[in-house]
Amino acid sequence: MRSQQLRYAIIGLIILAVQVALFRHLQIYGAEADLVLIFLLWLCIQKNRTETLLYAAAFGFLQDAMTDLWGLHTFTKTLLIFIAHNYLNKISENRFMVWQIFLLLLGSAFLHNAILIGLSSFIELYSSSSVAWSMLTVGSLYTSIVGSFLYLVIAE
After folding, report:
1. φ, ψ for residue 92 (rounded to 5)?
2. Less Cβ crowding at N or C end of the chain, within 10 Å?
3. CA distance linking residue 74 with residue 76, whole number of Å
4. Tens of pLDDT, residues 22-36
5. How far is it, in rounded angstroms, from Cα 40 to Cα 81?
6. What is the C-alpha separation between 145 and 41, in angstroms, rounded?
7. Which has the closest alpha carbon to 16: 71, 54, 67?
8. pLDDT score recorded for residue 132
9. DSSP per residue over 3-22, as a string?
10. pTM for the complete prediction?
C-alpha cells in the first residue's frame, strides 16, 4: 500500500469516527450531515474511478457497521460515486466559488438521500414519511452547509 493511499485511508477513518461519534448526535429535525459523503466527493476529484469506488464501498461498509444499517450506505455511496465521478472530474479543473460548491453538494446529497430513502423503503426502516422528507430536505441542506464551510476553511 502506498503512503498516499494509507494517508487517505487514515483521513477517511478519522472522518468516519467524527461522523459516528459527533455528527450522529448533532441532528436537526432528525437529519444529520454526512461527512463521509463529503470526503468521498472530494476523493472523486483526487483519484480515479476504481479507487474511489473501492473507498466508497469500504467507508460505506464501515459506516453501516457502526450505525447498524447493513448495506444501505455501502450501496448508496458506491452508486452515487459511480454516477457522479465522471461529472466531478470534468468540472474539477475550475476554481469554484462557495455557492457553486454548495449547489454541487446539495445535488449530490439530495441524490444520495433519495437513493437511501428508496432503499430503506424496502425494509421499512422509517415509520413515517415525515422522517424521510426531513432526511431528504434538511439532511441535504445540512450536508451542503457543512461541506461549504469545510471548503472555506480547507480550500487552498
Report:
1. -75, -10
2. C
3. 6
4. 888 888 887 888 899
5. 8
6. 15
7. 67
8. 76
9. HHHHHHHHHHHHHHHHIIII
10. 0.87
Q: How far apart are the first and last CA of the chain?
A: 27
Q: At the topology level of CATH, where does 3-154 sit?
A: Arp2/3 complex 21 kDa subunit ARPC3 (1.10.1760)
Q: What are phi and psi of 45, to 5 degrees?
A: -80, -30
Query: Which residues fall within 8 angstroms of residue 154, CB to CB, at 6 or more apart?
Result: none
Tell me how far apart the 2 most distant CA atoms of the chain are, in Å: 46
C-beta of residue 146 within 8 angstroms of C-beta of residue 100:
no
Q: What percent of the chain has pLDDT over 70?
A: 94
